[in-house]
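To whoever is on call:

I kicked off a structure prediction for a single chain this morning and the downstream step that reads the tokens threw a length-mismatch warning. I double-checked the sequence; it's 367 residues and nothing unusual in it as far as I can see. Pasting both halves so you can look.
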Amino acid sequence: MTKHIKKHNNLAMQSAKEKIMMINFSKKWVKITLHILVWVVLITLPYIININRSRPPHPISSYDENQFLRLNFISYFYWIAIFYLNNKVLIPSFFYQKKYLWYGLSFIGCLLLAITIHSILFRILLPNFDFNLGRTLWFNTPTFLLTIAASTAFTMISDRISEEKRALQREQENMKTELSFLRSQISPHFIFNVLNNIVALVRLKSNELEPTVMKLSGLMQYMLYETDEEKVSIKTETEYLQAYIDLQKQRFGKKAAIETNIDIESEFDEIEPMLLIPFIENAFKHGVGMIENPKILVDLKTEDELLTFTVRNKFSEDENEVKDAASGIGLANVSRRLNLLYGKDHQLEIEKKDGWFNVSLTLKLTV
């Protein structure tokens, strides 16, 4: 029976990377730039729509024309005030709360306030001209609607970006928590297996007991201190794997043929700690015992920042093989970790064929 498992997680890491590539709205210079762009559009668009906006209805003196320009310039400030009033107060308090009637009343109130202020300024700056309400509404209502529309769009977009950023942060924190939990499950499982090795050596009264304990001490030091890092050098990880294999060789001696081939192109490449050991653990756990001519093959190679890792072991076809409660914990956890950490940048295949259990893993060391 053949079983293929290809693990590609496009939701955890890929979506996170795509979101990180989005505009980082929290940066001050981005916010300032966006506000400037919004106001350049709001200031220039009314003039594009109505080129006569800043001109009086009939020829007047240069002084009065300048007063009209001052009136238009001052009007920008209450448009800005309405923009941020809608942005900071009206939308959060009424629109988002689904109080649409209150939002509509506030909308009308802002328009009346803008017209009132404009009429007061008109009478102060241009006392020789009659205030025309119809003409004022004609020129200011489009600007008011444009300001409200821009403010609403700006608010919703910025809030959406902020919410996505918070969701990404929550996702990253959840992923860190889950990875920590999965790693904590792998570590006790590994310790349990190695202690079994030591028990076997004690029973055999082997002279290899002391160096074995020293190797275990080194492995424990690695697990307790270096695995807290997000990544370790591939050289450190492979030394850890080799030490574990050496412990197993001491335990089984000539009872099992164990072949190891490790070819590291650059020892400075990095990998997540304890990512590969469960596959080797599994090979020794189920590849040695009530099996004729047990054999385990381990091959690890890195080239051009691509890691290729294969583990093969003979296994028993006996369906009544007894497995302990911890069986399979390591493989299940490492598959989950690969999904969380590498997503589409890895491929894991596991198959049983012709009496061999085969694991093949490829992943990019730089993602």
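Update from on-call: the warning came from a stale cache, not from the record. Cleared it. Sanity check on the structure: The chain has nine helices and seven strands.
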